[in-house]
Amino acid sequence: MQSKLYIGTNTKMNKTIQQTVAYLEELGIYTEGIGREKLELFVIPSFITLDAASKIAEKAQITLGAQNMSWEDRGEFTGEISPLMLQESGVQVVCIGHSERRHVLLETDEMENKKVLSALGHGFTPFLCIGETKEQKEWNIQDETLRKQIKIGLHGTTKEDAKHIWIAYEPVWAIGVGGTPANADYVEEKHKLIRNTLVELYEDLGNQIPILYGGSVNNENAKELIRLENIDGLFIGRSAWEAKNFSKIIHETLEIVEQENLLQNENC
Ligand code: PGA
User: Fold this and answer.
1) pLDDT score of 256
2) Residues 264, 260: Cα–Cα separation, whole Å
3) Choice from 68, 216, 249 to test ligand 1 binding pocket (greatest atom count within 8 A of CB)
4) What pLDDT was estimated at residue 222?
5) What pLDDT score does 265 carry?
6) Centre of ligand 1 from the C-alpha of residue 75, in Å
7) DSSP secondary-structure letter at 134?
8) Ligand 1, closest atom to CA 215?
9) Where are the beta strands (DSSP E) in the chain?
């Protein structure tokens, strides 16, 4: 685990502007007693909410993310959002390659790589999401798949860049309605593989990249998952969309992390 616990949510195509504002306000109140030196709390709402959300997020000490980003600054790309636009909207993190973008919208590793490089170039934290599909798991090529997604997705990044990168491991078969939660042993095994691949790329700095787990995380499995050695945090969908429940998960996991002394000393 890193020196703080990473927990966040992507609201996907849910919550209007008003609902997002109310959600952030509520979440801010529920978490105001938690020192942010030990918690990186982030919310990734839809683009249209960002302007209003940014005004509350800062006060509530919630890091704001975008769900996607074009790799181009401007031009004939109807429907895309440029990094220059995001720079004006209070966004610090950009989610890249969420499984729904890869599998519903057919984004490729090469596209994710261009977005990662563009995000870094514009001062954002690229939050690269990776994960194997059910078929890739059945074919027993999950490790190859994850390594490929990391190596292509992060191609051309430097050790300096490594300080700004976050990763989410989200097995596609575990995500969303109808997803099957992954068991803890499997998650730890894959997180270890991801960690080793990052160390291969960036040597010791690879150990400092937060690796979050996502896919049907809920109040119950969160407590087990957060104890795993190579898990630095949780990336939660449905269970986080109600501020009260999300804050319950945050408080409970943080309590475990603190009681069991899992946070790494900053000076280590
Ligand atoms: P879920 O979504 O927690 O609802 O499965 C996770 C995600 O898509 O990041």
Assistant:
1) 96
2) 11
3) 216
4) 97
5) 79
6) 32
7) H
8) 5
9) 5-10, 39-44, 63-66, 93-96, 125-130, 166-169, 211-214, 233-236
Integer CA distances (angstroms), 201 to 73, 84, 143, 156, 167, in order: 28, 29, 16, 10, 14
> What are residue 268's DSSP bridge partners?
none
The enclosing H or E element of 162 equals: helix 159-162
Catalytic residue selected from 40, 98, 107, 122: 98
Ligand 1: which atom is nearest the Cα of residue 179?
5
Q: Is 170 a catalytic residue?
A: yes
Catalytic residue flag (residue 191): no
What per-residue confidence (pLDDT) applies to 263?
93
Residue 264: the pLDDT is 87
Q: Which regions of the chain are under pLDDT 50?
A: none
| pTM score above 0.90 | yes
Atom of ligand 1 nearest to the CA of 238: 4
Query: Which residue in the list 40, 100, 112, 170 is annotated as catalytic?
Result: 170
